[in-house]
Design brief:
The strands form 2 sheets. The protein has a 3-stranded antiparallel beta sheet. It has a 3-stranded mixed beta sheet with strand order 2-6-3, with no helix packed on it. The mean pLDDT is about 85. Helix content is about 60%, strand content about 20%.
Length: about 170
């Protein structure tokens, strides 16, 4: 009878252990579920924060856009005067002015688009104002001359560079 009593007592103690373990198992599942919910909410908040940062940056860039376009025009004038000047002192002064304007443009979030002669024509950042005939096929669709630098603000081309393209 002790064997049977031990079996019954063991079954009762095992059943008692299961009864005690079951609430802990459910609590563990709920904690895992809560952890997943918190991770999803954290990811959602991160996405919202990133979107707000982008919106703020876009709004700030929009506020400076008119200023950047004016600075680009001044940069073009200063660079043009530097290249046309015959006096070395004037050339140095206009070059320094153009360099300073470039630093201000970059500091405000702009990027100058200054293609070089021989660069491939890029329709996104350049505007082909004119074309020139070329005898060499490898020079086709490359920059022949730069008339005016361009301006990018972030990924957007605000003012394309005016260029002459070989055809």
């Amino acid at each position: 009878m002790t064997e049977g009593a031990d079996d019954v007592a063991g079954a009762e103690s095992q059943g008692g252990a299961d009864e005690v373990a079951e609430p802990f198992r459910r609590l563990d599942e709920r904690l895992e579920d809560l952890g997943r919910v918190i991770v999803r909410q954290s990811q959602s908040l991160d996405r919202l924060l990133d979107a707000e940062k982008k919106r703020s940056a876009r709004d700030a860039a929009g506020a400076d856009l008119a200023l950047l376009v004016d600075l680009l025009a001044l940069y073009g004038d200063a660079a043009g005067c530097a290249s046309a000047s015959t006096d070395a002192a004037d050339r140095a002064a206009f070059t320094a002015l153009a360099d300073g304007l470039e630093r201000v443009i970059v500091g405000r979030g702009g990027t100058l688009v200054t293609p070089r002669i021989g660069d491939d024509f890029d329709a996104v950042t350049m505007d082909a104002v004119d074309t020139r005939e070329t005898g060499a096929a490898d020079r086709s669709r490359t920059v022949a001359d730069v008339l005016r630098p361009g301006l990018n603000v972030g990924p957007r081309s605000v003012r394309p560079a005016a260029v002459v393209v070989y055809r």
